[in-house]
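With this grant's support, we have paired protein sequences with backbone structure tokens. One protein thus recorded is set out beneath this paragraph:

_____
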Amino acid sequence: MGRPRCRPFCVRKGGRRFMGQTRRAENLLEKDALGEEEIQHLVEQYDVESRFRRLSGFAGTFALCWCAAMSCFHLYTAGIGLLPTSIQRAAHLMFAIVAVFLLYPAHQKADKTKVPWYDWGLALLAAIGTGYIVLFFNDIAYRGAKPLPVDIVLGCMTIVLVVEAGRRILGNVLPTLAVCFLLYCLFGRYAPAMFMHRGYSVSRLVQHMYLTSEGIFGVALGVSATFVFMFVLFGAFLAKSGGARLFNELALALAGHSPGGPAKVAVVASGLLGTINGSSVANVATTGAFTIPLMKRVGYPAEYAGAVEACASTGGQLMPPIMGAGAFIMSELLGVSYLTIAAAAAIPAMLYYGAIFVNVHLRARALGLKGLDRASLPRPRDVLRRDGHLLLPLGAIIAMLLMKFTPLASAFWGIVAVVGVGSLRESSRLGWREILAALDEGARGSLGVAMACALVGFVVGTSSLTSLGLNLSNNIIYLSGGNLFFMLVLSMVACLVLGMGLPTTANYIVCSTIIAPALVKLGALPLAAHLFVFYFGIMADLTPPVCLAAFTGAGIAGADPTRTGIQASTMALVAFLLPYSFVYTPMILLQNVSLPTLGLLVGASVVGMVGLAAAGQGWMYRTLGGAERLLALALGVGAFFPSLVVKAGAALALGGFLLLERVAARKALERSVRES
């Protein structure tokens, strides 16, 4: 995130005042903010993808050119000429895996300033293994993917290199899981009876995982090679043009002056930034570097400040129009448009962020916190006057999606719009250095998703080769006794546990392959089932004991990580209830809509989230006692109950409770005034 710059266009009538406000906003953002080195250290501590080499000389130049070439390749195929699916996926993986071996060391203690000779060799072998598919795809297809000896050698080599590259950029969990699935394919005859199969030869395994679109080069990698990469690249271009600055300063201008303003700034800024950044940890580090110190300055406890930023940053993957990579994969798996996915996620996402906003407001009122001085804040109209044009590319993407353009085309023209619109102001104009940096950062930002999708291909490929997915689904149904609610609880636990070690995208793919079909068999709508596992895969970033987003926020705040994670889970309680709500009442996902019923669902959910916030923060117009908090909690949970009668009754009772609390608080205030 670059330092905001003010250019001569500001010097006109009222320009000096605008320039002065801009500088005060910069000073406010930078006063307590962490330095870049501190932020990078924290991100590396919790995000394996950030532990890359800082190269210079020939190696640095080559890596920069390679990543820029990767971005240019995807821009060409998105906007000018699409390649056959398998070639596109293989070329995408070739660029990604070579970049990983050049940028990511074999272990943490390795030198991060140079590329050793063996990594150059591994990068070359990886290029050969994946490039073979690019060059000889037609020949492979002509012979029906029947493996030749050279195919088996190159296939085995590529599988090993994909696992190693995945280990370097993602950690040990997903590569280990991939290896276990591969071993299951080979030695299935020795598995327990319910999972036993005849076992497959190395030749058959290589054919399935390497030469067809069932394994490494499956649907997941296809989504990474198209939609995901282009939206990551769009985010990089928008950030370079000043989009992050716009979101931060606009959030300051809109919410900074209100009670507990910095916490509300964190919610707004992180929500906006999260729509173009699919990484919870990176989002926490980017916006939390200035919002968390601001929150502590006005009086929020350190744990609470870290938890607010973690919740706000994690929710970005749930917020349309640009959600996490899993949403694009969901579109492909379900065979529905991405617009349908985004529309279905809209109301739950707004309820989530509404709940976080209410939580921080009540905590501010309970602590008697004030907002930031208006004089130190920019004015919304001034921010929009300077950088408001950068909202046009986002608007263009939304408009194109509504006009039924593909997400790929929408992202491509969104990037073009960023470059074009950015040229209208000198502060947002992209020169060739900024464009090159955006191409580089866009490619780097996609590497983790690309390798996760390639590794998950082994899981999906094993499921299709051995029917493991069907067996697991049937056994999960058996364990749940055929009861949908117990099945949902088991699924939630599985998603949260897998999320401790898997990136959110990989978590979703695994769970959508194994768990979602079981939910559908028990009566859940396919869209609701997939969003259910999608939500809980993301919530793993907030749920102790391994809650990476909360740990990152705690690191910036100087707080206890576990307590921060507990605070975050409490604050995001709505996110643990919403998935159950839209499985039982899918109308909230805009499915089979009846406006009166939808109004009841949304209204009850809004009242319920206020009740949950009051119970969590222990305040509603006045300090709540233990019994009052339990009552608010019970009624808040009831407002999300599947039964419309129970939902409406709980919402009405909760509304009455909140009204009584307001009356009681007013009477207490009047009594205090009389006594004084």
About this structure: Residues 594-676 form one domain. The radius of gyration is 26 Å. DSSP finds 30 helices and no strands in the chain. The longest helix spans residues 432-466.
